[in-house]
């Protein structure tokens, strides 16, 4: 028997050796084919990414040109097309270009006395306008002045950033799914859902249009960083990319700290559930990037007092205090997690309150008042909070948004992928909390769990959930969610892991079926999108419109052009009062001094704006004149569209907000709070037009059309 066993083993060993020799001979050719296929796929995918990004940029730029006939309208009309705060930001680009030297241009921004009358403010500290400074420097030093007007250099830069934005979304989806087909689908969805994914073509200088491309790059870099088994060099380069994109995102948008706070909550959630490798580097990069921006913004107190810095420091401190957080049974670990959450929350509030008291910081209190009122923690008569609450952009996301997203199949695909990944995430989280040995192998549970979820997938899942909640509660923030929705939905449809989970659920698992589903479904959706939306997109590109704003155009040539003239009787240092939105245009078109402006992140400016807006309240001409003169105003511009506003419902019209804040009863049929009283004076903006002696003693009309009325203030006390 022993001899038989030996003789039977010899042929097996010999056969195994023969097979190994054959495999060794075949491996080089097999590896070479796979390597060549990867190179070919990367080349094609990269080329498609660049092309789709450039095409999206050209598409949006063409829509902007066709909508306004931008190349054919006058310069003043181009400037008027930059509405509200967009015009304010562009004015600083224009100011830097008109400065005799760069040094004088910088000096004018650091010691500015035209944006807020009777005050000298540092614009580089107050506002995020380094991008305008950088572009103005580039335009001055590059030999392009003969070929490209300043305004085109500015808008082409923004549309160029859109190419980077779409490319970053494409790459993120590609990294998650493993196929560039996913990135192509994400880009197609971004374009076909343009109404809900971007508004760059009609709000070009808006801060978010500068910032979101860098935010998308940061998300792509974090997605790559969270992949396991990165080479040390790749890891360092990825961390550098995360830092640079985080820094640029923070530098270009004043709301950066709130967006990155959401991101920090994503990291905190996943780190607590043991679904990420150590996130210390990412917390540190956020803090470092924000502090560097703080230095560049001359130690802006709003950054130092941000919740993000307090939260990140609190997380790092709490982790040092609770080293054995990831040990014990399920209920033991759950209790530790709740305690950890409580410690982090307490530390965050404590640090933030200490910093704000030391700095006497009130710049962002209007945001917290707004949030408090929005989520039902008591009604408020605060003018600033109600100003936000009554704006549609800060209301709940309208339901028709989901109808539009469903037309492109995006919403259906998103819900499908989200449902599967949420189930997988809950299973992995439960497994991690139940495994008492996970502290020894932090990423072990993710790999050994029956379902499994990659760290980069888990990150993007919680990211899309938190930003989805933000978008549902505040419509203006939907652009952060809908663009990532395109990424997440396309990734899921092209992901072998998602299809594997689904097919196993229905007992249909087969590797061939996975390949069929992950490629056929996206291709069918791409064909559907081309069939349904391509004709409409071609019609959009062929439809020519023209800029049309007759009242403002009349105001511009009639008043603004007069003010720009050096021979005008109006003093060059005349100060203008009016609505924030209109004054931004006055600043851009005339360069004249303003009493207030739309950049609302300053407590003294908010108080000043409320005082100036008494021109639409029920106040006496003496009171209004005294208030306006206290800010040095020489002229006031009244708008019928505000005085007789019908766009908002009763209680949300600007005049109603002022009446309630002043303790006066609102106009029109409807209920009033019992403690509100009848005003002792008629509404100023209505009564001044009657030219009665009490008003003409203080105000002289110098210009009017059917929308605007401009009055000169007397200097008599």
TrEMBL record:
<protein>
    <submittedName>
        <fullName>Putative C-mannosyltransferase DPY19L3</fullName>
    </submittedName>
</protein>
<keyword id="KW-0808">Transferase</keyword>
<feature type="transmembrane region" description="Helical">
    <location>
        <begin position="487"/>
        <end position="507"/>
    </location>
</feature>
<dbReference type="GO" id="GO:0000030">
    <property type="term" value="F:mannosyltransferase activity"/>
</dbReference>
<feature type="transmembrane region" description="Helical">
    <location>
        <begin position="210"/>
        <end position="226"/>
    </location>
</feature>
<feature type="transmembrane region" description="Helical">
    <location>
        <begin position="337"/>
        <end position="355"/>
    </location>
</feature>
<feature type="transmembrane region" description="Helical">
    <location>
        <begin position="163"/>
        <end position="190"/>
    </location>
</feature>
<feature type="transmembrane region" description="Helical">
    <location>
        <begin position="238"/>
        <end position="255"/>
    </location>
</feature>
<dbReference type="GO" id="GO:0005637">
    <property type="term" value="C:nuclear inner membrane"/>
</dbReference>
<feature type="transmembrane region" description="Helical">
    <location>
        <begin position="39"/>
        <end position="61"/>
    </location>
</feature>
<feature type="transmembrane region" description="Helical">
    <location>
        <begin position="513"/>
        <end position="531"/>
    </location>
</feature>
<comment type="similarity">
    <text>Belongs to the dpy-19 family.</text>
</comment>
<feature type="transmembrane region" description="Helical">
    <location>
        <begin position="409"/>
        <end position="430"/>
    </location>
</feature>
<feature type="transmembrane region" description="Helical">
    <location>
        <begin position="261"/>
        <end position="283"/>
    </location>
</feature>
<keyword id="KW-1133">Transmembrane helix</keyword>
<keyword id="KW-0812">Transmembrane</keyword>
<dbReference type="InterPro" id="IPR047465">
    <property type="entry name" value="Dpy19L3"/>
</dbReference>
<dbReference type="InterPro" id="IPR018732">
    <property type="entry name" value="Dpy-19/Dpy-19-like"/>
</dbReference>
<keyword id="KW-0472">Membrane</keyword>
<keyword id="KW-0328">Glycosyltransferase</keyword>
<dbReference type="Pfam" id="PF10034">
    <property type="entry name" value="Dpy19"/>
</dbReference>
<feature type="transmembrane region" description="Helical">
    <location>
        <begin position="290"/>
        <end position="317"/>
    </location>
</feature>
């Amino acid at each position: 028997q022993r001899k038989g066993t030996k003789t039977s083993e010899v042929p097996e060993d010999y056969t195994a050796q023969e097979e190994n020799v054959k495999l060794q001979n075949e491996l080089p050719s097999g590896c070479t084919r796979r390597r060549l296929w990867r190179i070919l796929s990367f080349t094609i995918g990269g080329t498609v990414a660049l092309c789709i990004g450039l095409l999206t940029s050209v598409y949006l730029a063409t829509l902007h040109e066709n909508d306004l006939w931008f190349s054919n309208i006058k310069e003043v009309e181009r400037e008027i097309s930059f509405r509200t705060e967009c015009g304010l930001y562009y004015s600083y680009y224009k100011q830097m270009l008109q400065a005799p030297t760069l040094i004088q241009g910088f000096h004018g921004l650091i010691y500015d006395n035209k944006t807020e009358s009777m005050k000298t403010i540092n614009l580089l500290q107050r506002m995020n306008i380094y991008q305008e400074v950088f572009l103005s420097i580039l335009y001055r030093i590059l030999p392009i002045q003969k070929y490209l007007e300043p305004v085109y250099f500015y808008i082409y830069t923004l549309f160029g950033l859109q190419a980077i934005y779409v490319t970053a979304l494409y790459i993120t989806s590609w990294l998650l799914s493993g196929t560039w087909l996913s990135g192509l689908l994400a880009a197609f969805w971004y374009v076909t859902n343009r109404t809900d994914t971007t508004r760059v073509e009609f709000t070009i200088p808006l801060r978010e249009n500068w910032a979101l491309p860098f935010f998308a790059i940061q998300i792509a870099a974090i997605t790559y960083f969270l992949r396991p088994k990165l080479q040390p060099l790749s890891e360092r380069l990825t961390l550098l990319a995360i830092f640079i994109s985080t820094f640029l995102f923070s530098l270009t948008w004043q709301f950066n700290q709130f967006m990155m706070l959401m991101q920090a909550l994503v990291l905190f959630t996943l780190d607590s559930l043991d679904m990420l490798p150590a996130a210390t580097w990412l917390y540190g990069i956020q803090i470092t990037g924000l502090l560097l921006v703080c230095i560049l913004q001359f130690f802006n107190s709003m950054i130092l007092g941000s919740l993000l810095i307090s939260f990140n420091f609190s997380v790092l401190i709490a982790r040092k205090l609770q080293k054995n957080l990831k040990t014990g049974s399920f209920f033991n670990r759950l209790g530790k997690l709740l305690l950890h959450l409580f410690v982090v929350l307490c530390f965050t509030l404590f640090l933030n309150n200490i910093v704000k008291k030391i700095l006497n910081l009130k710049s962002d209190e209007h945001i917290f008042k707004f949030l408090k009122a929005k989520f039902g923690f008591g009604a408020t008569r605060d003018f600033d909070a109600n100003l936000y609450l009554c704006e549609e952009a800060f209301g709940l996301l309208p339901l028709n948004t989901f109808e539009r997203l469903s037309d492109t199949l995006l919403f259906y695909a998103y819900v499908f992928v989200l449902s599967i990944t949420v189930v997988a995430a809950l299973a992995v989280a439960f497994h991690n909390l139940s495994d008492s040995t996970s502290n020894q192998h932090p990423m072990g549970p993710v790999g050994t769990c029956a379902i499994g979820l990659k760290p980069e997938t888990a990150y993007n899942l919680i990211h899309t959930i938190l930003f989805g909640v933000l978008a549902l509660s505040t419509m203006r923030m939907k652009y952060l969610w809908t663009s990532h929705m395109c990424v997440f939905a396309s990734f899921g449809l092209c992901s072998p892991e998602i299809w594997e989970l689904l097919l196993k659920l229905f007992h249909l698992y087969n590797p061939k079926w996975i390949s069929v589903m992950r490629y056929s479904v996206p291709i069918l959706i791409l064909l559907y999108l081309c069939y349904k939306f391509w004709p409409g997109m071609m019609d959009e590109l062929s439809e020519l419109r023209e800029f049309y704003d007759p009242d403002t155009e009349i105001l511009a040539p009639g008043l603004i052009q007069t003010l720009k003239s050096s021979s005008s009787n109006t003093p060059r240092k005349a100060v203008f009062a009016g609505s924030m939105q209109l004054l931004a245009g006055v600043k851009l078109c005339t360069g004249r001094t303003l009493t207030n402006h739309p950049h609302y992140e300053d407590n003294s400016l908010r108080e000043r704006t409320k005082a100036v807006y008494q021109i639409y309240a029920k106040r006496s001409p003496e009171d209004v004149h005294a208030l306006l003169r206290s800010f040095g105003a020489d002229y006031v511009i009244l708008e019928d569209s505000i005085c007789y506003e019908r766009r908002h419902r009763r209680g949300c019209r600007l005049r109603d907000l002022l009446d309630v804040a002043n303790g006066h009863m609102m106009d029109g049929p409807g209920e009033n709070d019992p403690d509100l009283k009848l005003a002792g004076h008629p509404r100023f903006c209505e009564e001044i037009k009657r030219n009665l002696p009490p008003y003409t003693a203080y105000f002289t009309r110098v210009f009017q059309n059917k929308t605007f009325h401009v009055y000169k203030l007397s200097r008599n006390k």
